[in-house]
Every structure is written in C-alpha cells, then in structure tokens.
Amino acid sequence: MKRTLTLGYSPCPNDTYIFQALALGTVNWPGGLDITLADVEELNGQAASGLLDVVKVSVAAAAGILDEYVLLRAGGAMGYGVGPILVAGEACDLAALDGRKIAIPGRNTTANLLFGLCCREAGIHVELVEMVFDEVMPAVVAGEVAAGVVIHEGRFTFADQGLTRVLDLGAWWEKYTGLPIPLGAIAIKRSLGPEVAVQMNEAIRQSLIAAREHPEIGREYIKLHAQEMDDEVIATHIDTFVTEYSLDVGDGGVEAVSRLLKEAGCTREDVFISV
C-alpha cells in the first residue's frame, strides 16, 4: 500500500506511546501517514462519518461503524484495573445520584456505556451532560454537576482535585463479566482490503515494540501532547493502559470486546481482522 493513509488517535500518553515510532518514522509505512490527534469522542465521530482510514475508537462506538470498519488486533487499550472512575465532590453512593446531573466524556464512549449499565443495574436515572474528557473534573469541582465519569489521566489525579471515588466502573465490569475491560480499539476501513489491514496491524505492533525497546526516542513526542505534564503521571498512564492486550487482544480480548459490543446492541461476528 503506497497511498498515504489517514490515521487518527488521541493525544493521551498510551496512544502517543504506541504510535510514536510510526509518527516519527522509526517504523516506516509505505506512502506515509497523515496523522490526526483528537479527543476520543471526536475520533468516534470521525469514524462514524468514515473520515479516517485508520482510527482509534471507543469499543462502545465500534458497534456503530463495523459495516465500514474492522478492528485490528493491536494498538488498543484493554486490561484489568484500567476502567473509568465515577467521582464526586463528596463521599456518596450511586443511589444518591438518582436524578442528578452527571458529566460524561462523550455519549459514544465506553465509559458512558459502562456508566449506563451500572445505572441500569442500580435502577437509577440521571441527566447526562456531555463534555470533553478534561472538562469533567473541573465541572465536578465547580459544582456544575453532581458527579462525573473520568478517563485517561483523571484516573490517577482526581484525588488531587479534592474529589472522591464513587465507583470504579472497570472493577464493576470485571465483577459483572469476569473479563478485562476493552476501552479502545484501532479500526481500519474494510475497503482497504485484508492485506493492508494485516500490514497495518503489524506496523502498530512494531511501533509498540520499538517504544518498549527505546523509550527515550519518543519521550518528547509523548510529553508534547500529554494533558498531564507530570512525568510520573505520564509513566503511570502508559504502564496502566498499554498492556499485553495492546500487542494482541488474544482470545480473552476478543471475548471481552464481543461481550461489550453485545451490551451496546451489536451482535456482528466478523469484528476483528484475521491474522
């Protein structure tokens, strides 16, 4: 494939870590890559409109794009102990939020799907307020909403903002299903063909391997785009969200994605590329 492909991923450290070698040219993609960095919900929207050839999406959002896209086995965010956190300004339980305004980092995110499943099980109804992910905690601190679902660096920094954890949505999913939580995945257009999809999957794997073998090369690139500039937070973020599932989802990962897609109303079986 010599045509330039459009590639979109988030500026969060786990994505920039995985894709740094491709972005910096350490791992070559014939024809080159036109790279877009954007918030995950913006990427979900671009995927829904078919604007990007290869794109990081929330697994929940993948349910609506699988006619046009197929998921790669590498490059995603999945694991145990990596899920979103529901936070509030003061200690409370989920039931106390019934009827209240809750900030979410986008309606099509996996975080929102998980929160909705928790609310369903608890028998409560809330008013959702959509925000860019880095606006959620300030809104909770300011009292604009009763609570908020935080993702990315927020998982590690919410206590620094004086916020308290109401519920670990990832831990809830693990107890609910016994499976790892599939947060995000890399989707590629089916029209590019299976050969290109396999090649891109391998290129992403090699980019991640290069990042692990030579972490110093992409450090500046990662920090340039990170919302949280603290080196320790960035390192923790990468260690948490870049797992062995990021190299290959494996059978357990495929099962987890299939289960989450089913919860999102999708029962399609040809979800992942064949390698």
TrEMBL record:
Keyword Lyase in record: yes
Binding site for substrate: K56, V57, S58, T110, A111
Keyword annotations from UniProtKB, A to Z: Lyase, Menaquinone biosynthesis
Pfam hit, one: VitK2_biosynth
Pathway the protein acts in: Quinol/quinone metabolism; menaquinone biosynthesis
Presence of keyword Lyase: yes
InterPro entries (UniProt xref): Menaquinone_biosynth (IPR003773), MqnD (IPR030869)
Function: Catalyzes the conversion of cyclic dehypoxanthine futalosine (cyclic DHFL) into 1,4-dihydroxy-6-naphthoate, a step in the biosynthesis of menaquinone (MK, vitamin K2).
Family statement drawn from the similarity comment of this UniProt entry: Belongs to the MqnA/MqnD family. MqnD subfamily.
EC number: 4.1.99.29
Catalytic EC class: lyase
Protein's recorded name: 1,4-dihydroxy-6-naphtoate synthase
Matches recorded under Gene3D superfamilies: Periplasmic binding protein-like II (3.40.190.10)
Organism in which the protein naturally occurs: Pseudodesulfovibrio nedwellii
Active site positions: H152 (proton acceptor)
Annotated TM spans: none
Catalytic activities: cyclic dehypoxanthinylfutalosinate = 1,4-dihydroxy-6-naphthoate + dihydroxyacetone
